[in-house]
């Protein structure tokens, strides 16, 4: 199931397929710091991700300061990481290319 909590081995495999994402100390989230050229690119990225997240019915915890966006992904209902978090991470990495 897509909303089923992943075990440590699955998390480590999925994480190794990504770049720039790290596991938080408590093991329940992955996070990444994105840096863009300017605020417009950062906000364009967030807009695209917001629409993708809504379609996926899976939403990021994030914050933006000028040209930086900090993203933390976790599945609240599973109290940990699920396949959905990794799907959203892949979508976000793809959105970076479109923002440029
Ligand atoms: C009803 C709806 O499917 C749920 O509330 C979804 C919405 N988005 C979500 N996003 C995240 N990150 N975790 C959730 O558990 C979650 N649940």
TrEMBL record:
The lineage of its organism: Bacteria, Pseudomonadati, Pseudomonadota, Alphaproteobacteria, Hyphomicrobiales. Its EC number is 4.2.1.96. GO terms for biological process: tetrahydrobiopterin biosynthetic process. InterPro entries: PCD_sf (IPR036428), Pterin_deHydtase (IPR001533). It catalyses: (4aS,6R)-4a-hydroxy-L-erythro-5,6,7,8-tetrahydrobiopterin = (6R)-L-erythro-6,7-dihydrobiopterin + H2O. Belongs to the pterin-4-alpha-carbinolamine dehydratase family. It holds the Pfam family Pterin_4a. GO terms for molecular function: 4-alpha-hydroxytetrahydrobiopterin dehydratase activity. NCBIfam families: PRK00823.1-2, PRK00823.1-3. It comes from Rhizobium glycinendophyticum. Keywords: Lyase. This is Putative pterin-4-alpha-carbinolamine dehydratase. It comes from the Bacteria.
């Amino acid at each position: 199931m897509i909303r089923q909590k992943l075990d440590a081995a699955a998390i480590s495999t999925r994480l190794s397929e990504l770049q720039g994402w790290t596991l938080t100390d408590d093991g329940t989230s992955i996070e990444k710091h994105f840096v863009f050229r300017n605020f417009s690119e950062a906000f364009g990225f967030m807009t695209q991700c917001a629409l993708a997240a809504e379609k996926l019915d899976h939403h990021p915890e994030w914050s933006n300061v000028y040209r930086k966006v900090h993203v933390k992904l976790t599945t609240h209902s599973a109290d940990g990481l699920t396949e959905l978090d990794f799907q959203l991470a892949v979508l976000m990495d793809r959105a970076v290319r479109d923002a440029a």
